Amino acid sequence: MKKTYxxxxxxxxxxxxxxxxxxxxxxxxxxxISRQADMVQETYMGRESIFLKAGxxxxxxxxxxxxxIEYDINFPKERNFPGCYFRMQDTAELEIxxxxxxxxxxxxxxxxxxxxxxxxxxxxxxxxxxxxxFDLKFDFWHHVKIDVHGLQAEIYIDDxxxxxxxxxxxxxxxxxxxxxxxxxxxxxxxxxxxxxxxPAVASSPAPIPANGTGGLITRWQVSNVVSSSLFEKKYQLxxxxxxxxxxxxxxxEPSGIINFSRFGRLTKTENAVVARISIExxxxxxxxxxxxxxxxxxxxxxxxALYAGADPFMSRDYRFLGSIGFFDxxxxxxxxxxxxxxxVVAENFGGWGLQAKFDDMEKIxxx
Length: 367
Fold this sequence. Notes:
This is 3-keto-disaccharide hydrolase domain-containing protein. The chain has 367 residues and is mainly beta.
């Protein structure tokens, strides 16, 4: 399949970008851009299809912002994650809906997640509005429809009249982009891809609570990306550690989750950031802080290590997902005056984030 951007752009311009017009995109050689794709066009179970054995294919310049995307998908009974990219800025910045055939019937059989800097966030975004149970069939043509408008999307499968999934807040800021199809790591067939553009819907993100509301931390100082080895067997913070860090102030999402992939890119050697906050205490006291993290964390208070944890995918058993939540607690021995709390969070894959809240805010304030 030729990697010709010009042919793809010209064809799509000829098809028309008119609002409300449905554009059907056959799998011909001059329409799709390949990314390490191993594929063949073939008739499969009565439908003209692309057999995507590996990799991705995408349409870079469709200018999809609001509208619908529809396609048919057929997969075997094995572990894979095939799905559709949308509002794709490039291969590292996009939204995706995909299915997990090996989890058919389970709560995570389907998934919406964003990508920031090449990092998927499914460990941060799970449960209602992000993943839903569905009984997937194998060697069967499922029909998928994705209806996108502003910061929301509805996902329909087969002949559903009501959506399987309502994504109440897409995590990336709305911006027109490409559409793509992914093999998800195992062979899959796609057929009958089409999309329709609609006028953009004006929408505003949900408000973020003020820092400390209900105990929730919603503003952190976040460091540059560093190697987690900088903190190995470091039970106290040293000037040498601190001097290599630079800081920006970042807000969380309304839930209190902060997705570090928004602010930095992982490398083979740099896989950690520090999130810090100052706590002003009116007296010497101990406060309980509930938190969640992905995937590894070390907690320091006033330069002293208090806690370390590891929650990567499958680290506890074969179904352990490493999903974030307020599942851990730490007891903070606060001194009277200013206290500095550090979370050093390192990533493996699947979501790089943190959320934290105090059980109560009596006689403390956050800075």
